[in-house]
Design brief:
Chain lengths: 233, 251
Amino acid sequence: MLVTPALLLAGCERTLNALLARDPAAPARLDALAGSRLLIRFEQPHLQLLLHFHRGGIDLLRAEAFDEADADAVVELTPETLSEWISGATVERLMFEGKLSVRGRTYLLESTRELLTDLDIDWEGELARWLGATPAHSLAEGLRRAASWGLRAKNELMADVSEYVFEEARLLPGPQQRRVLRDHLTELEVATDRLEARLKRLHRRLTQHTSETQDTSEAQAKRLSDDSGETPT
Amino acid sequence: MSPTEKRTTHFGYQEVPVDEKASRVADVFHSVAARYDVMNDLMSMGIHRLWKRLTIERSGVRPGHQVLDIAGGTGDLTLKFSRMVGPRGKVVLADINASMLRVGRDKLMDNGVGGNVEYVQANAECLPFPDNSFDCITIAFGLRNVTEKDAALRSMTRVLKPGGRLLVLEFSKPNNPLLSRAYDEYSFRLLPKMGQFVAGDEESYRYLAESIRMHPDQETLKGMMEAAGLERVEYTNLTGGIVALHRGIKL
């Protein structure tokens, strides 16, 4: 059904624009990009998206009715390349490796990544819009303190549990004990290898000795039979 | 009796003189203008936004284009088009109804839309624009209220530039009998009650349901667009055919 992808895209657009609206740095970046259009072609799944930048955010449109001439830059990529690009790989490197094809104004790509990945959302400002500056600040301070206490409590709990399990109750080996055990096991492994090598050597010598003894006996027997054969003449 | 007086047209399920339809439709929209957006969201459960979104995606509008949004009502399409055409382009929001136009203008101004949008009170049957003026024309949920649909389509084709697109988003005929049955129950029983409850106007929403049933189906409208001089006419059924998006190109 046509409406389902439109719904997904509308949801993405709304979320993205809501986040951009809460980033104090976004308006300046959007001003610089306003009016630009970036056409993104995904190879797998086959999808064409047109990103239209305006002062209020980004319009995400499926690009069925648009062609390359409608866009300032055209990018062709795979989802893997997209994740690499968002993770910080440079456009130049991706292009050099043949993972990314860009036509048009390539700086649009860098500006888009900067806009989307450098989001610094001002939650306190958003709260202030709803509750007023003073209650919002108190609430934000409270949340920050609660978060910091939560983090500290979590670290202390981890340390206490670790100490009890490894040191007091000795339920599990600690890192030091594991290291000692690993050293002992390595020594045992080396000794076993050495013993195995010795056994092999002994076995080889024993085999060699047995075959030499057999050869000597056979030679003596032959000599004796030869000697007894000369007597009638 | 003169021939003009004898001619009638449908107003929902009623037959009314041709001259009366425009004023009756105007009354309906004067009545619902203030609550139009709320009712649209409520009646369609918000899906009308997706239908309009698809219309925008199919429009192919780009910076610098001239766009005409007929029966633009409260300006949903105009808002997006004004961003897409940028400062070099222009969007004309046209509606026959002054109340709807006023609500649309206020809403757009509240959204910071100004420089590239013009507002024109105009009848779609005789658009007050020169020939070959617009790159794209849209009419969303407006054509069924027009008295002379053929004249309106001819007028739109006239003002469209060669290569320009006309997009008609309008209620149509569901293609699944089960859906059709459920849709009838919804529109004739529930919809008027919702209209009464939210907008205090049951009759207007009864008219809405009736006018949808009287509107030409997908193939008929396609034929009408072709007869008006448009080429490569195609349509897409949305939500099982409850709504259809027709697109034609002037070559």
